Amino acid sequence: MPELPEVEALAGFLRERAVGRAIAGLDVIAVSVLKTYDPPITALGGLTVTGVARHGKFLDLDADGLHLVVHLARAGWLRWRDGPPTGPARPRKGPLALRLHLDDGSGFDLTEAGTRKGLAVYAVRDPAEVPGIAALGPDPLSEEFTAAALAEIVAGARTQIKGLLRDQRVIAGIGNAYSDEVLHAARMSPFKIAATLTGDEVEGLHQAIVTTLRDAVGRSHGLAAGDLKAEKKIGLRVHGRAGQKCPVCGDTVREVSYADRALQYCPTCQTGGKPLADRRMSRLLK
Fold first, then answer.
1. What is the model's pTM?
2. Of 114, 112, 77, 85, which Cα lies nearest the Cα of 27?
3. Residue 129 annotated in active site
4. Is 57 a catalytic residue?
5. Ranges for the Formamidopyrimidine-DNA glycosylase catalytic domain (predicted)?
6. What CATH number is given to the structural domain containing 207?
7. Do 103 and 12 share a structural domain?
8. Structural domain includes residue 251
9. CATH number of the domain within which 104 lies
10. Is 5 a catalytic residue?
11. Is 259 strand, coil or helix?
């Protein structure tokens, strides 16, 4: 799933290539991705892209005051074209969901792999009209996201810190992968209860959040859209690396599986050497 660093990189990529270009047209291949009808998405045709922004994991193209907002969900992606497409878009053939054409022949395709569809496209006059954006918590790369702000967030939160970091209503932009990376950097168990964090632990977690995300954004800066997935995978230290050696201590990275996702962690770095029980089978070993 694209998270804050990848969406930030996509926004930067589009700023360089799409801003100043007029939208020549849009082909909606999968009508189900459209989540709004007023204004119609066809209203974007002929307008000029004047800016590109990111709101959490949402990508926002401003076209003369109308906004094309995209949430890539679990398996969505943006594929850039330097020239016209090689063939017509065919409904129900492959992963293509929406195709945008710019006036110089370039543009991009929105695609979604797999059978679980979550890709969402909105045409709105204000990004705040998108429910997911209106409900977002603070952006962890903003000036407002201080250690004191994080302390207020975790205070009284009787939930596991892993879940809290993934909750977009609490902190915007962090998903399953970067929450694993943040907690590894903070040397913190994913099942630690948020409200039990000490002042020093909050400071350490705040630093881990900001540093991990800024480093990931820096690695992705300037990369072509097609290279971002590979860069993300290379940069991860524990997420998706179950069975491999922790790059910090050399212990074996372990995994806890759920019905629709999994988390990875290092026992030595994060849980005092104790393995966590698979949540499908039993509760945390204490």
1. 0.92
2. 85
3. no
4. yes
5. 2-95
6. 1.10.8.50
7. yes
8. yes
9. 3.20.190.10
10. no
11. coil
